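Readers of this paper often ask what the protein records in our data store actually look like. Such a record has a labelled line for the sequence and another for the backbone structure tokens. Nothing more is needed to write down the fold, since each code stands for a local backbone conformation. The record that follows is passed on verbatim for readers who wish to inspect the format.
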Amino acid sequence: MAIQRWSNHLLLLYLVLFSTTIITIGAAVTKQQELDRISVLPGQPPVPFSQFSGYVTVNKQHGRALFYWLTEAHTNPNNHPLVLWLNGGPGCSSVAYGASEEIGPFQINRTGSSLYLNKHSWNKEANILFLESPAGVGFSYTNVSSDLKDSGDERTAQDALVFLIRWMSRFPQYKYRDFYISGESYAGHYVPQLAKKIHDFNKASSHPIINLKGFMVGNAVTDNYYDSIGTVTFWWSHSMISDTTYKSILKHCNFTAERSSQKCDDAVNYAMNHEFGDIDQYSIYTPSCMALPNSTIRPVRLKNSLIRRRVSGYDPCTENYAEKYYNRPDVQKAMHANTTGIPYRWTACSDVLIKNWNDSQVSMLPTYKELIAAGLRIWVFSGDTDSVVPVTATRFSLNHLNLTIKTRWYPWYSGGQVGGWTEVYHGLTFATVRGAGHEVPMFQPKRAFILFQSFLAGNELPKS
């Protein structure tokens, strides 16, 4: 994909917002924050931190508005960085997954009636901002229905940048704060693409307000060719497919082509339908949920990628709890959500967006090279039991950055046990998380928390 150019209207937008904020910081901004404040969520246990949620319009002409949920740090929020979390899909909700299953302060009980505390919540170390992106995901919406059928990487990154600029106008205490981005899966596109948007925007601004320090992504879609080769290798090396099918896929699949051949499709479909068995592809060693039929699993092909996604996200059982909870009118009222009467139920993932994704960058490696050269702190981690965006795919992709090694491969530790393995390069840290599936913090919350602490501190993972 060609290097994206900046339009003058973004710089003008920034200057207008910046000057307006200086004038109105005393009254209007504080009032808007208070309108977004969550007093208490239904079924929520007591907590020592503040929460805010609501909408930020990113395109007035189309009526595109993105929904956010800020959970401030447990103590001294002014002394902690701001971290934006993005889930992937494309088209899946950061509220459903990141906030409610992985790194948020609350998790949802089976009946969707109450919340309980996550003792490894990442807001113990930072202020966490969850964003439902792009428009059409979760509570985020657009008034132009065609937006749902031509979303893609470029617009998603652009809207996210506009969101951040306008959100920081509403929350000026976070301007200039150390800022990081994190996410997983297809956020392997969202996160570095947004980081590049911010980096380019800052270079064009005389007073940049977004103090981007780095980003961290997990089980990240990175490069179509190397991801595909690495995925098939994982299937074979973990005995999910036969030698015959493995050889057939390698023979008939051209991973650089726009469209796959019929023989390639036949080989891949045979593997999935006849050799995988009834397993959870996002976590191959844990029991699969029996609450929903296998028909909820369906493949999505982006630029010939073999990556297979569930429309319903990672775990149908856990996701059901979120869909019960966030469709409750009292929950929506408490979160200032669905204020315009969206004509569909809140769902964890948008089937329409997934099926109609318009543009997808073939490789993120050129973007990584540019952001490494810019001096950002970049960590890539991988749960090693995920067969959808597996560790082999990530390693194959990162190897082609040709980075020099700073600290050689070693096991890192959590609670006296090996938490995974890591290698530190000049410009990037790679780490595996032992025993974790696609959603690393869900399967290994303590190990993921140690990973996050080390990332924020700029420290290598513990050797003992």
User: Anything to note?
Assistant: The first strand starts at residue 37 and ends at 38. Residues 1-222+319-464 form a domain with the Rossmann fold fold (CATH 3.40.50.1820). The radius of gyration is 21 Å.
